[in-house]
Amino acid sequence: MSTTTNYDVIVIGGGPVGLAATYEVAKAVRKVLVLKQNNFYNQAEDFMAVLAKESMDVWDELEKDAGESLRWMSGLLNFGDPTLGEGSPEVTVDKIQQRWPFKDLPSSYEGLYAPDNGVINVPPLVRTLSRLTKDYGADAQRTKVNGISFDTSNNLWNVSGIRHGKDNTSYHASKIIIANGAYVSHVLKPSFGLDIWEITSSYFNINAGPKGTIFPSMWFQFAPDVNDRLRLFYGFPAVPWGPPNVVRIAVDAATRRITDSDQRAACEINAEDIEDTRNFVRDHIAGADASAPVFNSTCLQTNISAMRFVPSLGRALAEMVLYGGSKFSEHEEFHITRKNADGSPILRQATVKQGLVSKLGVQKGQRSGSSRHSRVHHIGH
User: Fold this and answer.
1) CB 3.0–4.6 Å: which of 47, 256, 288, 317 could bond 198 by disulfide?
2) Where are the compositionally biased (Basic residues) regions (predicted)?
3) Does 3.30.9.10 match the CATH number of domain 76-114+196-301?
């Protein structure tokens, strides 16, 4: 067992949020260590609109410090069934189909366009945060954390794990930040019943021209469920850093839901979610090849898409461990005392069995914090 020196803060999780928190702690001239189990560089509500607006200034600061742009501000179109959204419509269905390559949309559809939204270039974001954390003096280790404990004799947290897949090790810190997302149950044992969604997405070829298919911005469609299948589709334009004439389109739902990251279907992608998306592309997008996606991918998700909030979440976490509070954490939706949608408290004590929440089949409900019933202006990813 090897033991390192003490740290002011240890960050468990080296994804974008964990790296952003490490970056903010290191900028405050504190001794900080970030731990990631894999190699580094792996790849809705009303309050969210407020948080997204607050995040813009923090994004500007990060890009200034990085010396490069990490966003492409292309705008965002929210559209669909007007009974599922809030706010005044700004774009009629005719204008939507004139400016964006949609077709055969219901005549009742309305839209809301927000120009101050964009697409995040994730790989440079992660590389930039990793570089800046080291520039500010942070340490980084590839360590799979398997437990934490608090030592009352010295008031330090003990973080134990396996370094580089073979060496048992431990680290000590006055404060810790847990930012390892769907893998949190491996640290906070036993599992406390996470509802983890295996989100799928697909990439489709589009007509290169003449009169080619061009999406001028991101978009999100709100629509009622059909046969218990969610119809919340979204998409991105062909981005400057991606392959030409290929767009990402997906359904904001998951048929397969699990309670522990170890249950992830590593070698399969849910065919029903892909088929829902393919049918939407066939029926409502002009100039896109819906016969077969160019590429399908999947990721684990436990909440809303938070990439647009990465700098703000990192700053909030850093300020909370360093100073005891942050303006970004003042939103009641982040409070540990907040309520579930049915009014029950989120805090509970119970024994949770490991297992699937729902197996392959009918999609269940919506993701906690989903933007399903509100038109949210946000930066996507």
Assistant:
1) 256
2) 370-381
3) yes
